[in-house]
Design brief:
Elements lengths: L1 H19 L6 H8 L3 H7 L3 H25 L7 H18 L1 H8 L7 H28 L8 H21 L9 H12 L3
Helix pairs in contact: 1-2, 1-4, 1-6, 4-5, 4-7, 5-7, 5-9, 7-8
């Protein structure tokens, strides 16, 4: 029961924040959307920020899980390019299927305060490391690939984050699919495997 209520609150804050913005969202909005009492909210979270951070963590965890599962479904595949394509396609697909989380976690996180920005930096670091590890494996399989400075992977993650945010703001979640091929091609070019 407690996990169910917590899950409803986490889901609800993403939905409400996507519609009203982080600053405009109140605890009353969240509990109303989740159909729980205020006391239930405060049993789970000390404030709106903590609830939002839990939603951010849940979204990032879900995304990484889906990306791992998609890559594992490829089996033992020596073609790192297919692994890269799988990561990018899965990432964009999950965002497209969860528009409230996509908006909350790519756009509204920037308005949610320093703790949210720190959490965002940590999560972006996880994605940066994932790409770096893929490049290390690619270089092991193909020694002709160029070595890249660590900053290249950070720039890649930041660039992806920015084009996704801009797409959500200007064209909406349905346009995310149009980013797949450009993102794959740009990443392959950066890693030297175009």
């Amino acid at each position: 029961m407690v996990e169910s209520q917590r899950g409803r609150l986490v889901y609800s804050i993403a939905q409400v924040v996507a519609g009203k913005g982080y600053a405009g969202t109140t605890v009353a909005d969240i509990v109303d959307r989740a159909s729980v009492s205020r006391s239930t909210f405060y049993d789970q979270f000390p404030d709106k920020e903590a609830c939002f951070l839990a939603a951010y963590d849940a979204g990032a965890e879900f995304m990484l899980h889906r990306m791992r599962s998609a890559r594992e479904s490829l089996g033992i595949d020596p073609d790192w390019r297919r692994q890269l394509r799988s990561d990018i396609e899965t990432y964009l697909s999950v965002l497209a299927n969860e528009p409230a989380f996509a908006w909350s976690l790519h756009v509204e996180v920037l308005a949610a305060g320093n703790a949210a920005l720190s959490r965002r930096a940590h999560v972006l670091g996880l994605f940066t490391e994932r790409t770096r590890r893929l490049h290390v494996e690619a270089c092991r399989l193909d020694p002709s690939l160029p070595e890249l400075p660590p900053a290249a992977f950070t720039i890649h993650t930041g660039g992806m984050d920015e084009i996704i945010r801009d797409c959500l703001r200007t064209e909406g979640v349905d346009a995310l699919a149009s980013l797949r091929e450009p993102a794959v091609k740009a990443t392959l070019a950066m890693l030297g495997g175009a």
